[in-house]
Amino acid sequence: MAIRSRQFRLRYPRFRTRPGLMPMGQMRPVVDKDNPENADYDWRVGEGEGNFILLGDRPTAGWNMIELGITHDQRSAAACITFDLGRGFERRHSIFLVIRRGKVSKRVCFVPYGTKRIRLEPLVGQQGQFRIDHFNFVWLTPRFAYGRMINRLAYADKRFQEVDEKAIVRSLKQEGKEEGISWKKLMGAYYEATFIHCAPETSYEYWQEHIEILREPSANKVARQQAQFQNPIELAVVLIPSGKEAQAAGDHHQLLESVRAITEQRYPHWHLYLAESLLEAHDGQTWADRVVARDGRIRRVTGGVGEAVKMACDPNGESCHYVMFVRVGDRLGLNSLFHIANHCQITPDAALIYGDEDIIDASGQRTAPNFKPHWNLDFLLATNYIGHAAAFAKDQLESRLQVFSREGGLELHRLLLELIVGVDETRIHHVPFVIYHNAEANRVSPERRIDESREAISAYVESVDPQAVVSPAGDKGCRIAWSVPEPAPLVSLLVPTRDRVEILKPCVDTLLALTSYPHYEVIILDNGSTCVETLAYMEAIENDPRVRVLRYDKPFNYSAINNFGVRHAKGSIIGLVNNDIEPINPDWLTEMVGHVCRPDIGCVGAKLYYPNDSVQHGGVILGLGGIAGHAHRFFPRAHPGYQNRLSLVQNLSAVTAACLLVRREVYDEVDGLNERDLTVAYNDVDFCLKVREKGYRNLWTPFAELYHHESISRGADDNPVKQARAKREVDYMRRHWREALQQDPAYNPNLTMSYEDFSLR
Predict the structure, then answer these.
(1) 562 vs 146, 511, 524, 660, 691, CA distance in Å?
(2) Which of 3, 299, 347, 714 would you label with 15, given CA atoms 20 to 30 Å apart?
């Protein structure tokens, strides 16, 4: 009877569910359908949250395939589906999909048992118009679902690439056994991480609960790895003033929190140095007596912080290898010292090891994650992006103790810039874990931060280029105007084109009328124009002594056309410029020339906008979308970018050739653009990577601004021949630059590879 009752309750799964939709929040129907701009869309989501509640039959609980097709007016978008299990819609029960315009996106998901309602957010964090073309839940057998998830891990998770399915399962089972987690749960979490779209400003808590918990090693894993260490390093931690001791006088709570975070470290080989002056400022002498008595690794130092630093760096003192400086009120993460020590097992000669950081607010919540790039000199010359989450090799500090001011404060930016003089960049390393939590109370004003950075940067630049000028870049950081050689070198701007005078004329006319740089030539590379108006314009514009027109009467090959132009160019600096570019600020070329003339710089890229003033190019990030994508694409023009990266000069692996400067000698050194394998796409990325291989730093500047009507002259890859060519170019990039595409040093492994918005991965 019990068996019969159980069988009666079991429900045969609905293999396909097509839910209805009820609009909620800021979701509104498009009413002015007669307007051609709105004809393709049914819904508009405004400022604030807009979503749908699913109506009708709910999908069968268990494994399902979601099929979602949306036509929208965004260049890229993400959708979010959230399940209500009876406690309302909680972000921890959300899943994400990458939405490609006009295509059906698919992904596996587990519909929880007991689901009461389901919510769909078609455009997460975006405003715009859209139409839902296709939306299904398809029930799956567990075996089929596991197979699809493993297939995705094989190409979307770099840990499992070039590994067969059985090896992936073995790896997951081994990791699950070590961590005490079901391998299927682990697989589901890694699969979800390939889709997740978490804005750093709003979804960091969700990321901590779902992603970080998988990436941070457990206590068991830390213990196992430490047992295998060869000659584990000793770390010294020096507590330094927060700069706000006056407000904290008599309050030792902040001091206690900082010390407790150190004593709770899972890595045991450390010493903590507490200066008496700091204890007095926080009324912590009595409390410190008890702490020192309990833990022999804590040292009280007579005098100020400078004396504590000298003791930590004393070659005749404790045999510490690295020194960290922690402000009172700030905290180290539980595994912070372990991550540094573990990295030293791989790179024992590191001069500097730094990690990621965030902020702890007044309620104790972690916010504002700062996921940093690997070593990035030009970004450090704009702002102290490294911060306090850094461990310095003791031998590098012994000769630099003067960076401590008389008040005992640390001139950190100055220390970092002094450190790189005489230190090979291969000895500077980044660990992609959040190892440092800044107290919100320790934030300094932008004015003070920029003043301190300006002094440090000016001291460094003085020894490199005495004519360079350092100035504030708003409240975001600093800008260096590097000197241009005298006489100004000739820049050859190459503009490939074919017909389309309505594009070419605004480009060339604006270049000639607006550019303030005194010494340049414009070379129009005509690839078989037949339009009478275009030919007449080119004939007329040649009357300007700054303009030449060269004929290239062969099939379109972007690389070959530009290589041809370089052979005929007279300039010592080559500028690759698309025919749909229009400069905005007169000194755009002066800014780029100042950078490209620096001997250690290779390619220099600019900040490009769509005609609607949204960002088209903030640099190129390797691996985005499979090969490469544009950083911060579609961000508003005034947006500072993630960690101010749209506002400051920085090194990047690649920049677009829509506007790129490079010295002719460097162009020739790498044999120019690849005209055999990359005739249309990715030739600029390939070129930049060849330049980087030669030891040059590629660079992007936001202070050269231009409009770019992206690819309107070439058109889309919308026929079988173009699509076959595009596939060949993708295959070449994956084959030739496979390792480089795995992890861009100008990016961070904790940031998404599916979107161009620096959301969390």
Answers:
(1) 48, 18, 10, 12, 16
(2) 3
Identify the structural domains of the chain with CATH numbers, from first to last: 14-140 (2.60.120.260), 154-216 (no CATH), 223-443 (3.90.550.10), 444-481 (no CATH), 491-742 (3.90.550.10)
- Judge whether 494 and 566 are in contact, CB under 8 Å: yes
In sequence order, what DSSP letters do the residues of 225-238 get, joined into one string? HHHT-SSPPPEEEE
Q: How large is the angle between the packed helices 336-346 and 219-227, nearest 10 degrees?
A: 30
Alpha helices in 157-252 (DSSP H): 165-179, 183-193, 204-207, 213-215, 219-227, 245-248
Per the structure block, which two tokens stand in for 581? 């570019």
**Cβ within 8 Å of residue 424, ≥6 positions away:** none
Chain segment 651-694, per-residue pLDDT in tens: 999 999 999 999 999 999 999 999 999 999 999 999 999 999 99
Tell me phi and psi for residue 327, to 5 degrees.
Answer: -75, 150
Asked if 122 contacts 132 with a C-beta cutoff of 8 angstroms, the reply is yes
Q: How far, in whole angstroms, is CA 99 from its chain's centroid? A: 20
Q: How confident is the model at residue 589 (pLDDT cuts 50, 70, 90)?
A: very high
Peptide bond into 466 cis (omega under 30): no
- Angle (CA) 512 526 534, round 5°: 70
pTM greater than 0.90: no
Residue 607 corresponds to which tokens in the numbers above? 């900040």
SS (H, E, C) 93-131: EEEEEEECCCCEEEEEEEECCCCCEEEEECCCCCCEEEE
